Amino acid sequence: MNRWTLGITTALALATAAQAQRTDVTIALQLEPPHLDPTSAAAGAIDSVLYANVFEGLTRFAPDGAVVPSLAESWDISDDGLTYTFHLHPGVTFHDGTAMDAGDVKFSLDRARAEDSVNAQKALFTDIAKVAATDPQTVTITLSRPNGALPFNLAWGDAVIVAPENIAEIKTAPIGTGPFVFDNWRQGDQITLTAYPDYWGTKPALTEATFKFISDPTAAFAAMMAHDIDAFAGFPAPENLPQFEADPRFQVLVGSTEGETILAMNNAQPPFDDIRVRQAVAHAINRQDVIDGAMFGLGTPIGTHFAPHNPDYVDLTAQSVYDPELSLRLLDEAGLADGFSTTLKLPPPSYARRGGEIIAAQLRAVGIRAEITNLEWAQWLEEVFRGRDFGLTIVSHTEPMDINIYARPDYYFQYDNPVFRDLMTTLDGTTDAAARSDLIRQAERIIADDYVNGYLFQLAFPTVADARLRGLWQDQPTQATDLTGVSWAE
After folding, report:
1. pLDDT for 33-60, tens place per residue?
2. Which of 102, 237, 340, 419 shows a CA-CA span of 20 to 30 A to 331?
3. What's the topology of domain 44-169?
């Protein structure tokens, strides 16, 4: 081997070694968080950056959706199901170096369930009667009634553990216990995290992670092709996936989500307070056209608010099959033979913007004139979610096992059914697995029978990434971009 060949070989070996030693990653997301406090907003974009990375709860969701220990290494349940005793991992510290103990857990849960709490999932904590710091490493939660779902509820991003000392700055400078420290937020552009050297658990392979926010599908494609980013979680242009699949530089992961994508109807606003009108809307929609036109075929049709991959799912799609003639008859019965006008307020995701155009055309064919308004997420949260100022909207509910939102009359679509609420109360107090399954299936049928919303499809989750990147979640059991197991191939 001559010197020239030896030099080239050595250079290539060094380049390969340097590549293998890479410990930073840049991941793009379509949505930027409105702020950085997962305990005071319904925006899943917050969890997409911070869940399991910066903040942790007593329990957490694993990539397959299982609930596993996190800050609590174990827990005991009393025979009557009313007392849960959580044993905390020793040696856990917040990113400012202060110890995380039972007092912080008590503060976090009491804050989440307080009368003046702004936690978007406050209902998760309804059955908690008392939280006590038994000793620095032990937390006792006493319930007002048995709730077999408590460990599941505590795995949500809304239940992460925070510290009272820095809670005032949490929206812009979050301090958690996770493997990554919040470093910087260049609003409108990116958030940077760095590895926490004193992390209590298994240290991540990455030392730095940058989350870039790219809302435009065309720009997403360009950034990925140019290698300006290493991965795009929730890639917003499914029409480009075949091109990435054919390119050996990339890998394409198509997973499932907990995202029931619905055409939500304001059940308290005329004419949607009439079940015949809601039923007419449901039968005016051709789900497959929406899936094909908005998602390029990615998505599973649903007929109720439940994930098809769950063993308790009941396929009720035939109950709201596309039937515009039936829609016209129902509108006539409701005294709306000439149709009516309403609003269709759409948040930024492409499933909503693209799907909204298709659905508006389908509704127009039966005389329902839906005026489209495109909103940014902050506007959508203010007008639709909090203000309930809408007729129709399209959104994907990505929270896991969230059929219980239909038991909240003050929730944004304002469905009020005492029978359903009683069913959810019974479910909460049931621990037997078979009995819980039966109750869940009953719940699915009730909301389908009431045509609460137009049930469209279960959101798919495509991720495009550098072919050398390992450990990204394929599915989304909760809205998260968990970096704890991500690394570069050697």
Report:
1. 999 999 988 788 999 999 999 999 999 9
2. 419
3. Dipeptide-binding Protein; domain 1 (3.90.76)
